[in-house]
Design goal:
alpha+beta; Metal Transport, Frataxin, Chain A
């Protein structure tokens, strides 16, 4: 059962704010992270982006990088945003994307 609208917004915003706080610790030569209006834009030096954003109508968080996209729903048992196709949790998948893009192991 999806969370109520206000609970969803609280959970999604807390997740995005935590991610941007973690990304702000990276060297600006590696990436830049900007959060505005529920959209987290991660920009790389090659001008490519990874976008993580709220999708309030679906009560999900969506992420897109290159030609790949993920949809995450909140799982209260795991207290985590989990991919709807069973590919993993948001933080783990984003860490994999960043590891690939930066050429080093990243943990979030």
């Amino acid at each position: 059962m999806p969370p109520a609208d206000s609970a969803y917004l609280h959970l999604a915003d807390a997740c995005l704010q935590d991610l941007v706080a973690r990304l702000d610790t990276f060297d600006p030569d590696e990436l830049e992270a900007d959060l505005a209006g529920g959209v987290l834009k991660i920009s790389f030096p090659d001008r490519r982006n990874c976008i993580v954003n709220r999708q309030a109508a679906a009560q999900q968080i969506w992420m897109a990088e290159g030609a790949t996209a993920w949809h995450f729903a909140y799982d209260p048992q795991r207290a985590a945003w989990v991919d709807t196709k069973g590919r993993g949790e948001l933080r783990q998948i984003l860490a994999e994307v960043l590891s690939r893009r930066l050429g080093r192991t990243v943990a979030l």
